Amino acid sequence: MPEVIDIWIQRLRDPDLSRRREAIRQLEVLGDPAALGPLAVIFALDPDLETRRLAQVAGKSIYFNLERRASANEGASEEERRKAAEILTKAKDKKNR
After folding, report:
1. What is the mean pLDDT of the chain?
2. Is the dihedral of CA 5, 9, 53, 18 positive or negative?
3. Which of 10, 27, 40, 47 has the fewest CB atoms within 10 Å, counting from its CB?
4. pLDDT tens sequence across 31-64
5. Which CATH number is 83's domain given?
6. How many domains does the chain have?
7. Once rounded to an integer, what is the mean pLDDT over residues 12-38?
């Protein structure tokens, strides 16, 4: 049985304009990076200007959400944590004087 994302990706090739647009919207909601390639194809080749624009917006949304999640998961580097600890220590020392 195909995955939900695969079904929506297949619908990007539907001859019906409204079905292609709905597929783009659903792929954006799903946010799966597997949709980026197929959305790029729609952005480059779809005969309808508005559908190309929707594909561009959806692709950007998926990409930037992935980037945001990745940077949130990284957290502070070891160097940043060390500097923060030094600053906190200096502030504590000044307070205790």
Report:
1. 89
2. negative
3. 47
4. 999 999 999 999 999 999 999 999 999 999 999 9
5. 1.25.10.10
6. 1
7. 97
